[in-house]
Sequence to fold (490 residues):
Amino acid sequence: MSPCLHKKIDTDPIVSGLSTPLEPPSDKPSRIVTDGQKMDKERSNSKQAYQERTSHTGLEDIPQQQWNHPRINVWRTVIACYGLFIMGMNDATYGVCIYPVITRAVLTSAQAIIPYLEIYYHVSYTVVSLIFLSPLVGYTCSALLNNRIHMVLGQLGIAYIAPGVRLVAYIVISQHPPFPVLVLVFILAGFGNGLEDAAWNAWIGNMQNANEVMGFLHGAYGLGGTLAPLIATAMITEWHLEWYKFYYIMIGISFTELWAAVIVFWEATGKRFRNDHARTSDKEGSRTKEALSSRVVWICAVFLLIYVGIEVAVGGWVVSFMGTVRGSTPFAAGMAETGFWLGITIGRLVLGFVTGRIGEKLAVMIYLALATGLHLIFYLVPNQYVSFVAVALEGFFLAPLFPAAVIAATKLLPPYLHVGGIGFAAAFGAAGACIFPFIVGAIAQAKGVQVLMPIVLAMLVADAAVWALLPSLKKADVVVTADGEANKAQ
Fold:
C-alpha cells in the first residue's frame, strides 16, 4: 500500500504537478507526425487518462501530494520556503517597510534602505518611491507568463528562471547604477517573486495538510521580512557600509537558491506538468484567460488586494503613528513595528494548525473579526504599552489570511487553473502593496498620521465583505467552473 494518505472525494481530484506522470498509450504511430500533432496526441492522452481516473464511481480514493512523500518533496518544500524567505528579505528591504514622511526624525532599523537611497541619489521621497511601483510591472508580467512557463518547462522552469532573474537584478543593484536603471531592475526582482509566489502557493496549497505547510511557507516570508531590515540597517549604521553592499548578501542567497532549486526540481518537467494537469473543460485557448473568467479568482484577487494593503499600511506607518500620536521614542516605535511583523510570522506558523480544522471560510471571518477588535483597541486606547500588545496581536490574526485565500482557491478551482488563477490573484494583491501606501501617505501628509487608523478599520470591514462573497463549499463537494458556477459532484 502506498504510504500516501487517502481521502474520499466526490469530484475531480486535486493532483499536484509533482505526482507520478501518466504514461501515454504504448502503441506507436505508424507514420511520421509533426511536432504539433505530437503535442495534440499528448494532450489528448493525458486528458483521457485523467478522466479515466475520475469517472468510475465518483467516490475514488485519490492520493494527494504530501510535503514528505515522495521523498524529494521534502527538499522541494524546503526550497519553496527558502524562496519565500528571500522574497520577504527583498520586499522588506526596499518596499514593505516605508520610510515615514510625517516624522522624519523617527528612524529605526525597520526603515531599511529607503532613506539612504534618498541621500545617495539626491532625490525626493516621491521619486524614490517609484521602486514601490516597478515590482508591480514584474508581477503583472509573471501573472501573464506563469502558466505558459509551467506548460512548456514545468516547475523546473520556475526553479531556474525565478532565482535567475532575481540574481541578475541583485548583481546590477550591487553596482549602484543610475536611479532610472535601479527602478528598471526592480522589475526583474518583481518578476521572479511573482513566478515563485504563484508556483509554490499553487503547489503547496494543493497538498494534504495544506494549511499547516502553507503556514511554514508564509512564515518563512515573514521571517525574511523581519530579519532583512535589521541586517541592512546594522550594516549601514553600525558598520558604516554603503547601502548597496547589503545586496551582496542577496546575491549569495539567490545563487544558492538557483543551484539547489534546479537540482531538486530537475525531474519536474513541462511534460510531467501537462500530464498531471490535463484540461478537463471543453474550452480552448489560454488557461490564464479562462482563469480570469472565474468569479472565484476575482473574489480572491480583490480580497488579497485589500489584505496586502492592510498589512503594508499598518507595518509601514505604525512607526510614525507611535512616534507622533503616542509619543514613543524612536526605539519604542521601532519595536512596535517589529512586534507587528513578528506577530505575522508567528501567526502563520501557529494558526495554520487551526484554520484547516474549522474551515477556511469560517476561520478567515473569525480572524478578521479579532483583528478588527484589536485594531479598535490600538486606535482608541491611548496607552503606549496597550498599543504594543494590540498591534502585535493584530499582526498575529492577520497572518493566515493570505494562505487561507490561496487554499480556498485551490479547493474551488479545477486543478488546471490553479497556476493561472493564483498567479493573477497574487499579482493583483501585490498592487495593494503599491497603491495603499501612496493613498495612506497622501492623506496622512494632508490630514496627519492619525487618519491611518480609521482607514485601516474601513479596509478590514471591506475585506470581510469581499470574503463573504466566496462560495462556502468544501473541496470534497464542489469544483467551481471557469464561469464561476459551483457544481456539486455527481
